[in-house]
Specification:
The protein is mainly beta. Helices cover 2% and strands 41% of the residues. A hairpin with a 4-residue loop joins strand 14 and strand 15. It is globular. It starts with 40 loop residues before the first strand and ends with a strand.
């Protein structure tokens, strides 16, 4: 049948495009920030550099934040990214705060010793805060240190005026997404599920303004985080994507 969503007197569709959160080039604009007053979830990633540390029993992160099952204070297994750096991604509500720390075994007794100068909770733990207006945060440190790993956090500004990658359509159509880049580079693409597992990994040569089509039927319907690591620029950017079959 001919079914229209939000049809108006001028025809199919809606003439209220100015009320959406994306412009006609599929870019997220600042209108999305109105939701921060009501609370909504954004991707949050924890990273730890384990250089010189025994990782034979795995690497974990725990804290007051909810994992993929919505449970706090769980031992969440982290995934090796590159160069001894492990990561775990979950979702948190804007405005959330709390404590966390890293472990190198699935045992609460085997944890890092956080230096006093960067302890924020309980005299022992690191702290996280998801500020208003955030589109995603990354907390990345060297094991048992206050030194940060060189990463790029995701925010509304980087997704609009300074974005190196655009994804469309999002939500996808038939599990196919298209990527365009604003630079020429060798890019490592990774798609991460809600449990922090890498479910897709591919290196491509990207060319400015060229479109790259990726078929993702094999990883299933759902919400994921796409990470693009730009080798020459030594930068990364992330996007939340929705796969629809």
């Amino acid at each position: 049948c001919d079914c229209f969503i939000y049809a108006d007197p001028w025809g199919a569709g809606s003439s209220w495009e100015n009320k959406s959160f994306w412009d006609f080039d599929y870019n997220l604009h600042d209108g999305v920030n109105w939701m921060s007053s009501f609370g909504f979830n954004v991707p949050v990633t924890f990273k730890v550099d384990m250089t010189g540390v025994d990782v034979s029993n795995g690497v974990y992160v725990t804290g007051e934040f909810p994992n993929a099952e919505g449970e706090a204070w769980k031992l969440n297994s982290m995934t090796l990214e590159d160069r001894n750096v492990y990561s775990y991604t979950t979702e948190m509500e804007v405005g959330a705060t709390g404590s966390y720390y890293f472990l190198n075994d699935d045992n609460f007794a085997v944890r890092e010793k956080v230096p006093e100068e960067c302890v924020e909770y309980w005299g022992l733990d690191r702290g996280y805060r998801i500020p208003a207006g955030s589109a995603g945060e990354t907390f990345s440190y060297v094991w048992s240190s206050c030194d940060e790993i060189d990463t790029v956090s995701v925010n509304v500004q980087s997704l609009t005026s300074g974005s190196l990658i655009e994804v469309f359509p999002n939500p996808s159509q038939n599990s196919i997404i298209n990527l365009t880049f604003s630079v020429n580079d060798r890019v490592d693409l990774r798609i991460i599920n809600a449990s922090g597992q890498i479910v897709y990994n591919r290196e491509i040569d990207c060319y400015k303004n060229n479109r790259h089509m990726i078929e993702l039927m094999s990883i299933g319907k759902g919400v994921y985080f796409l990470r693009a690591y730009f080798n020459e620029l030594n930068l990364n950017q992330s996007r939340r994507i929705i796969l629809d079959m």
